[in-house]
Every structure is written in structure tokens, then in C-alpha cells.
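step=encode ok
step=design start
structure_in=
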């Protein structure tokens, strides 16, 4: 995909040129990967006046760093000698010799110490620093079809791993054991690894956000909520489902599940190009609030996914901006009742116009309330 990476760097170049910079130093790992392909850990990217001036600077003396990392073939690569030296500082030093007069850096990613180190190698009279801000993150919001294909495959892997787990015996097994088994199944089915730490929550833990699995064992009558995702070629998906263990659900479980399902459906139906991010959140949130659930709701109904599991846009009450087509997001409302448990239903979808069938659902495991 050399031409794809070159085109992405060209779009970035247009942005920082328009802001008055002649070069940019990209250090955030997901942003480097977006612009250069799979790269060794710790690599940074110097984007210059033209594609011929672009340079990937990699740390040296780590044979395993290069394993499986193959950046854009058309990109020049420089590896630092030995184990010493910061690639970001080295790249800034190299920018001095390219004739650039203003270097844009990702201030939101750099530590203060690293920022000072970069400044120390730049003669103030020859090269100024400016803030690239979140220019690369903004470019990453709308995905091309190759990126969406990776997300789709990752979602299929997660669906498969979850489906296999549901066919096994669950009563008596611990949350921790089930989470480890899910992560093993993800890799067995072709994932690079989990997209984030897999959450398995039972009984009073069910429905909690980012619950860390414990040694609590699954019991008859429990709610079981699972949230997992697969990473495939760097792209991360997310799915969350809630089930009842071993018996006919109690009425309160049915009522709570139906409520969260209705909220999730409202959020999914609001995923239309041109919709405000906060309106998607409002569509799901008001279903829960109208039922009397106003405390302890998630801060956001969903978020973007891609090279990171939580990226722009944010579907939250105060979020600004509107949805574009080809933007993958999660819709993940939930309710947790302290001491009793709760429900979460998470899907990964791609925003599509109505003419193309509306939002594309990537995570297809059933959302029926199953008794396992």
C-alpha cells in the first residue's frame, strides 16, 4: 500500500503547510502507523516538503523490534546506531538540515522532557517549533475500505470467539478463566491479539464499565456480561453482550435487558451522515433517562475505533461535530445496578448513508437475551 501511505502523508503535508509549517514530526505510535504502515516500536516519522523528504527514524540495536514490522516500501528509513538516542530528537536534528523553517510536533503526545530535548537541538534562529495538534487523528476519522475490511475481519473473529465460548459449560468457571479463554480463542482465529483487556463480569459485577475479571465463579441465575475485541492488522473492534446463566431470566432481568436494548437500537438508528455526535448520544441516553436511570450512566454512548480502540469521534453529551460516512463507531449503552448486576450491549458499526443501506453492523452475535 505504498501509494495509500504516500497519499495520507500528502494530505497531512497540505494541512501543516497551510498552518505555516514546512515539516512535521509525528511521534504518536498509531499516527506513525497510519502514515507509514507497520513500523518498529519506538519509530517516529519526519514528514518533509515532499514525499522524497519523508523519513522514518527507528531506534537501533533491537533485532526483535523489526520482526513483522514492514513500513511503506517507498519511505526512506534511518536506524539510529546503538541503543542510545531518542528517534524524535534525532528526527528534529535531521529537520534542521532540510531547510525547514518551522517544524510542527505533536505537543499533545510529547512529554515535557522530550519536548525540551527536541528544542535543545534546534537553533532558535533557524527552525521554530509549532503544534501539529491532532491533525493526524482528524485524518484517521474517516476510514477507507481497506481499513474497514480489517475492522470487519476483526469483528468476525470476535464474534466467532464469543460464539464458541457460549457453547461451553460456564457455571463454576471464574471470570478470569473465561477472559483468558476468550483472548486465546481470538489469537487462534487469526487476531493479532485482543483489542483491549477482555472484560467478563458475572452476578453483581455484570454491566460494569471496564470491569477487571476476578476469581468470582459463574452461578445459576447470574447476568453474564462480556466485552471483548480483536485486533486485526492493527485495527481494533469491540463487541459487548449480556446473557443469563442456566435458568429462565427473572422479570427484572428481562425488563432491564429490554430497556438497554431499546437504548442501543435508538443509538444505532441515529448513525446517519450529518448527525451531530451529541445527538447520537442523546438518542440512546434519553431512553434510559425516561425510564428513571439518570445516575451512573456511561459518560459517552460510544466512540470511534480504528488503530486505537477509543478514538475520535466521541458520542457524548458535550461532543461537537457531525458524523461522516465511513466512520466506524461503537454504540454501547449500559445500566449497572449496584449489588444486583446490569446489562451492556456494545456493537461496532460503520456509518453509511441511507442509500447504501444505513449503518453497517460489523458485530453480528445475537442480541437476544439468551439463557445459557
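sequence_out=
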Amino acid at each position: 500500500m505504498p501509494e495509500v501511505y504516500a497519499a495520507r502523508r500528502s494530505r497531512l503535508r497540505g494541512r501543516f503547510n497551510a498552518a505555516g509549517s514546512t515539516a512535521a514530526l509525528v511521534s504518536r505510535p498509531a499516527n506513525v502507523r497510519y502514515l507509514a504502515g507497520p513500523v518498529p516500536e519506538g519509530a517516529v516519522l519526519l514528514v518533509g516538503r515532499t514525499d522524497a523528504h519523508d523519513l522514518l527514524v527507528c531506534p537501533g540495536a533491537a533485532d526483535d523490534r523489526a520482526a513483522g514490522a514492514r513500513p511503506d516500501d517507498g519511505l526512506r528509513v534511518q536506524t539510529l546506531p546503538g541503543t542510545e538516542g531518542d528517534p524524535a530528537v534525532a528526527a528534529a536534528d535531521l529537520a534542521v538540515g532540510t531547510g525547514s523553517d518551522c517544524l510542527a510536533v505533536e505537543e499533545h503526545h510529547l512529554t515535557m522532557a522530550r519536548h525540551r530535548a527536541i528544542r535543545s537541538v534546534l537553533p532558535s534562529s533557524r527552525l521554530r517549533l509549532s503544534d501539529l495538534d491532532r491533525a493526524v487523528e482528524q485524518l484517521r476519522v474517516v476510514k477507507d475500505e481497506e481499513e474497514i475490511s480489517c475492522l470487519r475481519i476483526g469483528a468476525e473473529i470476535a464474534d466467532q470467539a464469543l460464539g464458541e465460548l457460549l457453547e461451553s459449560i460456564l457455571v463454576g468457571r471464574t471470570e478470569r478463566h473465561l477472559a483468558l479463554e476468550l483472548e486465546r480463542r481470538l489469537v487462534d482465529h487469526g487476531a493479532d491479539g485482543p483489542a483491549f483487556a477482555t472484560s467478563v463480569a458475572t452476578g453483581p459485577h455484570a454491566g460494569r464499565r471496564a470491569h477487571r475479571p476476578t476469581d468470582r465463579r459463574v452461578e445459576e441465575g447470574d447476568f453474564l456480561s462480556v466485552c471483548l475485541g480483536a485486533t486485526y492488522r492493527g485495527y481494533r473492534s469491540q463487541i459487548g453482550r449480556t446473557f443469563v446463566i442456566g435458568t429462565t431470566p427473572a422479570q427484572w432481568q428481562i425488563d432491564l435487558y429490554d430497556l438497554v436494548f431499546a437504548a442501543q437500537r435508538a443509538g444505532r438508528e441515529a448513525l446517519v451522515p450529518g448527525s451531530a455526535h451529541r445527538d447520537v448520544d442523546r438518542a440512546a441516553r434519553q431512553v434510559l433517562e425516561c425510564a428513571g436511570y439518570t445516575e451512573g450512566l456511561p459518560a459517552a454512548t460510544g466512540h470511534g475505533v480504528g488503530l486505537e480502540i477509543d478514538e475520535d469521534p466521541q458520542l457524548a453529551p458535550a461532543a461537537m461535530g457531525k458524523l461522516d460516512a465511513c466512520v466506524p463507531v461503537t454504540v454501547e449503552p449500559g445500566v449497572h445496578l449496584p449489588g444486583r448486576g446490569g446489562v451492556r450491549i456494545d456493537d461496532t458499526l460503520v456509518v453509511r448513508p441511507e442509500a447504501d443501506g444505513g449503518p453497517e453492523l460489523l458485530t453480528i452475535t445475537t442480541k437476544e437475551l439468551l439463557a445459557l
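step=design ok
step=annotate ok -> Residues 62-67 have pLDDT under 50 and may be disordered.
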